[in-house]
TrEMBL record:
Homodimer or homotetramer. Keywords: Cytoplasm, Glycolysis, Kinase, Magnesium, Metal-binding, Transferase. This is Pyrophosphate--fructose 6-phosphate 1-phosphotransferase. Mg(2+) binds at residue 103. It is found in: Cytoplasm. Its EC number is 2.7.1.90. InterPro entries: ATP_PFK, ATP_PFK_prok-type, Phosphofructokinase_CS, Phosphofructokinase_dom, Phosphofructokinase_III, PKF_sf. It holds the Pfam family PFK. Catalyzes the phosphorylation of D-fructose 6-phosphate, the first committing step of glycolysis. Uses inorganic phosphate (PPi) as phosphoryl donor instead of ATP like common ATP-dependent phosphofructokinases (ATP-PFKs), which renders the reaction reversible, and can thus function both in glycolysis and gluconeogenesis. Consistently, PPi-PFK can replace the enzymes of both the forward (ATP-PFK) and reverse (fructose-bisphosphatase (FBPase)) reactions. The keyword Metal-binding applies. The keyword DNA-binding does not apply. Its cofactor is Mg(2+). The record marks 124 as: Important for catalytic activity.
Length: 343
């Protein structure tokens, strides 16, 4: 078979491990040929390709990012975009397509399946918010990076008796904030699932201060929002999928904390540091398992399906089900586990 492959949405550690696994398994075991499409769906719209084979994939296992490039292009938002995708697939004689991405990339894949595209999805998002799988590769690496940063912030906060607001990724789900906040011993964790009240946050910090805890780390997900009417937050621009381009809630939160408490407060926004660099061993293994399962699904004819992790086993789930709802943080994890240490 001739198999096409693309990576869409935000990059994350482990993408190259998926690409490598698909190509190695497909070429060596099935005798497949491959074509890589550059920059996500943009590559199919504009017919931009690059060769993919075992030789081109040597040495990419530990590399962050994606050798195919990525974008947030949505062919359904481009004039004649879908027709151009279909023409490219036909011109390149692609028998099946492996799409690696999050809810937006895989949502497009699901819609294209209805157009007759033979596509298999691989879940990718460091936010860990795809409901079809228990965990996505890249999440573990992002949590590790954020936890190490929080560990370092503790030492400087304690040296100066400061509050430090650490902003991490998480548009609609606070998995990174919750896990890194628990692992890093944060005083407060603010997530998109539960709007925060600035007065409650400040009262908690003042209570810590009264107990002699003069340094505090507040971990906030980029998508966290205040209770309506309690704090003014600027609106953000949107991408082709209608999602706001987030980042900067910490810059709103920190001065308010300092003004209301009198405690010196600083900001650290981790941003794309969480996306870049070498994936952890766990993410390399999970990404490899997903890649192998994806090419096997192609040869089983399991199209319009996504490979997923369930109870440490790789399974297949319908793409439509996988992207319908987001997986959000369990309130018990946030309150019973993390909340037990908020003092």
């Amino acid at each position: 078979m001739r198999v096409g492959m693309l990576t869409g949405g935000g990059d994350c550690p482990g993408l190259n491990a998926v690409i490598r696994a698909v190509v190695r398994k497909g070429e060596v075991h099935y005798g497949d040929g491959f074509v890589g499409f550059r920059d996500g769906w943009k590559g199919l719209v504009e017919d931009r390709t690059q060769p993919l084979d075992v030789e081109h994939c040597r040495g990419i296992l530990p590399r962050g990012g994606t050798i195919l490039g990525t974008s947030r292009t949505n062919p359904y938002k481009i004039d004649d975009g879908v027709a151009r995708v279909l023409r490219t697939l036909e011109a390149r004689e692609v028998d099946a397509l492996v799409a690696i991405g999050g809810e937006d990339t895989l949502g497009v894949a699901h819609r294209l399946a209805a157009e007759g595209v033979r596509v298999v999805g691989v879940p990718k998002t460091i936010d860990n918010d795809l409901s079809g799988t228990e965990v996505t590769f890249g999440f573990h690496t992002a949590v590790q990076i954020a936890t190490e940063a929080i560990d370092r912030l503790h030492t400087t906060a304690e040296s100066h008796d400061r509050v430090i607001v650490c902003e991490v990724m998480g548009r609609n789900a606070g998995w990174i904030a919750t896990y890194a906040g628990i692992a890093g011993g944060a005083a407060e964790i603010l997530v998109p699932e539960e709007p925060f009240h600035i007065d409650t946050v400040c009262e908690s910090l003042k209570a810590r201060h009264a107990q002699g805890r003069y340094a505090s780390i507040v971990v906030v997900a980029e998508g966290a929002v205040p209770v309506a009417g309690t704090l003014e937050v600027a609106s953000a621009s949107t991408d082709q999928f209608g999602h706001p381009r987030l980042g900067g809630i910490a810059n709103v939160l920190a001065p308010e904390i300092e003004r209301r408490t009198g405690f010196e407060t600083r900001v650290t926004i981790l941003g794309h540091i969480q996306r870049g660099g070498t994936p952890t061993a766990y993410d390399r293994v999970l990404a490899t398992r997903f890649g192998i399962a994806a090419i096997e699904a192609v040869h089983d004819g399991a199209f319009d399906q996504m490979v997923a992790l369930r109870a440490d086993r790789i399974v297949r789930v319908p793409l439509g089900d996988a992207v319908t709802t987001l997986k959000t943080v369990d309130p018990d994890l946030l309150h019973d586990v993390a909340g037990s240490f908020f003092s």
